[in-house]
């Protein structure tokens, strides 16, 4: 895998993938779900106590470049 070849930590890779997808797609939900599908197989061997860390990295990466005034259409 390229991540292991370049020695990129899994959490940084998860954040970068989600942030790049958010920038490309414009939707945080799409970015988080698509990045989770990409990063999920890499996180398969993590101990159970560390499984939430990639999810947090994906969530914060998906919030990258989000505007403060963006709201769900259901709350308008």
Automatic annotation (TrEMBL):
Organism lineage string: Bacteria, Bacillati, Actinomycetota, Actinomycetes, Kitasatosporales
Name of this protein: Uncharacterized protein
Signal sequence bounds: 1-24
Superkingdom, taxonomy of origin: Bacteria
Pfam families for this protein: GntP_permease
The species this protein was found in: Streptantibioticus ferralitis
Cited InterPro entries: Glcn_transporter
Keyword entries, A-Z: Signal
